[in-house]
What we know:
Layout: H1 7-12, H2 17-27, H3 38-51
Amino acid sequence: MSYNSTxxxxxxxxxxxxxxxxxxxxxxxxxxxxxxSSWNHFVSMLFAQLAGHSWHFFIADxxxxxx
Length: 67
């Protein structure tokens, strides 16, 4: 079975998750977060940006407005 990397996967390789987590810890940005990590938020915002959407709230349940 061959492995094909997606565009979003290739973009995410440019960001060190360890460095990202160090920055999150240093800034205490996940202090009050519940259930949705900063990394997941970053990935969903990147996906929305690539998809050309200005809102990210519909990504959570997988529904996308048509039109």
